[in-house]
Specification:
alpha+beta
């Protein structure tokens, strides 16, 4: 490749044999080689001939920086020096993988995978930041990913590389007017020439947004506006904690971001297990981060709508047909009548009628009026009495009517007036028990320390209209944050929730008597805990 072979290497090193070119940029080339004695594969980064002296110094500085840092998520440096031709070089660990932007194209990611990759890079940055090193160019091209098979733990390992533009915190080695970094991944303070470790977190936040959405080159201002809109079908946006994490990483102010890789790792640990975001409910399966490009296509939607219409019409026709068949019968076809109880109804040609208590007798002449009167039940109204016939015969006496059946329940025993008076009267209403008054909401001053800084918290107002003024003493200056909210009583404890205008600073906790236990957060990130008592 590019004319590089084992027999004609572009440079010669006594302990290494160059195999092939791995990649190149405008300033340097990276070759695959192996140690002649150990047989270990290495990557050798060599500066091009046409680079100036400042680039040579930067290359050697990169070697020294990486050599001082040891972590599984940082590429390891074995050696550094100059070739016989005078070219600076660095001998580094060979990562059998691909740059993150290429690796992602061939490896579908879940939300959990994106968080795991971010956590690995944050772990490497934590070591660098602890040593006072700012990377200044965190981006997918500077993250190598090695796929792992048949091993316990993650199925991939991310390694941060290219500390060529890194510098110690607080140093001023960049030329005046020179901006170091990659547009789209640089924090606002980098443009002002004041990078901090929080600048690396900003860059990693842009990388995380790209991992979650597949949208590359989106500026942080656009990311923030999109995330605050709150209208999306992306699976990861359904989790407010994830949205807050990304918003915090790409915050415009460095003080609103995690201040180091270690702090970012703590926030990521609070979201574990990361796989919970891949399965929002028990019925779902692993959710891909980037939606399929075929989702929502017109052909697929037309097929789904057509299928639903077919099912609906088929069901309607089946129901109509069933109703029609249940009310129509072929002509001249006798209908079998199952045996029925004497009191049940049976169908006849003239419609349903009540069956008599005994089998129907043969046809008889119409009954006489006397027989009709005798067949009338006792519950029917009595006919009006008619005058006796002239022959002197009388209507059948009432004693000949059939007597009603005896009652099915035994008669109640007779009760006298005294028995009715013995029924206990309902108890007289009693006055409700008096409840003790709620505990007093203890307003006043609550001093203490938070993360080693002295503070004074003044609670005033009432439980329904709470005002909390926090004076935070930082060195020789004092920051004042005024928060408003309310307190609700649960048992004997007041639960407090207050926020600054705009929601940047928030206070949440409990007030039991005169003891205040609370936490202070900035943009949803916990900045410390308070445990103090009122002094006045």
């Amino acid at each position: 490749m590019h004319g590089v072979t084992a027999s004609s290497p572009p440079f010669a090193l006594p302990d290494y044999e160059v195999d092939r070119l791995l990649g190149e940029g405008g300033q340097a080339q990276v070759f695959l080689a192996h140690h002649r004695t150990l047989g270990r594969k290495v990557a050798i980064k060599v500066l091009r001939h046409n680079q100036d002296e400042s680039m040579a110094r930067r290359m050697l500085q990169e070697g020294r920086i990486i050599a001082s840092l040891r972590h599984p998520n940082l590429v390891q440096v074995f050696d550094a020096g100059q070739t016989p031709e005078g070219q600076p070089y660095i001998v580094m660990e060979y990562v059998d993988g691909a740059q993150l932007n290429h690796w992602r194209e061939n490896h579908p990611l879940t939300i959990g995978d994106a968080l795991a990759l971010t956590g690995q890079v944050a772990a490497g940055l934590a070591v660098a930041h602890e040593a006072g090193i700012i990377h200044r160019d965190v981006k997918p091209l500077n993250i190598m990913v090695e796929t792992r098979t048949g091993v316990a733990g993650p199925r991939f390992c991310a390694k941060l590389l290219d500390f060529g533009v890194a510098r110690p915190s607080g140093s001023d080695e960049t030329a005046v007017g020179m901006i170091i970094g990659t547009v789209g991944f640089m924090a606002p303070e980098v443009y002002d020439g004041e990078p901090t470790s929080a600048s690396d977190i900003f860059s990693l936040g842009v990388v995380l947004y790209w991992l979650l959405t597949g949208q590359n080159g989106v500026r942080a201002t656009k990311i923030r506006s999109r995330l605050r809109e709150g209208r999306t079908n992306e699976p990861w946006r359904q989790h407010p904690k994830l949205v807050d994490l990304v918003l915090g990483m790409v915050a415009s102010s460095a003080s609103d971001r995690p201040q180091s890789g270690a702090e970012l790792m703590r926030q990521l640990e609070e979201l574990r297990p990361w796989t919970q975001f891949d399965q929002p409910d028990s019925s779902s399966t692993e959710t891909a981060v980037v939606p399929s490009r075929h989702r929502g296509s017109p052909a697929l939607m037309a097929a789904l709508v057509g299928g639903c219409i077919s099912v609906f019409l088929g069901t309607a026709l089946f129901l109509v047909g069933s109703q029609y068949m249940s009310h129509t019968k072929p002509p001249n076809t006798p209908t079998p009548i199952p045996p029925i109880a004497p009191t049940a109804e049976r169908p006849t040609a003239g419609g349903p009628v009540a069956a008599p208590p005994t089998p129907a007798p043969p046809p008889t002449p119409p009954p006489s009026p006397d027989e009709v009167a005798a067949a009338v039940p006792q519950t029917a109204p009595k006919p009006a009495p008619s005058p006796a016939p002239a022959t002197g015969s009388a209507a059948p006496p009432e004693e000949t009517l059939p007597s009603p059946p005896p009652p099915t329940t035994p008669p109640l025993p007779p009760q006298d007036a005294s028995a009715t008076e013995s029924v206990p009267a309902p108890p007289a209403p009693t006055a409700p028990e008096s409840t003790p008054p709620p505990p007093t909401f203890a307003v006043g001053r609550y001093p203490g320390t938070i993360q080693g800084r002295a503070f004074s918290l003044e609670l005033s107002g009432s439980a329904s209209a709470l005002r909390a003024v926090l004076d935070l003493h930082i060195g020789s200056r004092t920051e004042t944050h005024t928060m408003t909210g309310a307190a609700t009583l649960k048992g004997d404890v007041w639960h407090i929730a207050a926020a600054e205008s705009g929601g940047k600073w928030t206070l949440q906790g409990t007030l039991s008597g005169e003891r205040l236990q609370a936490s202070v957060a900035i943009k949803g990130k916990n900045r410390g805990s308070i445990d103090t008592r009122r002094t006045q």
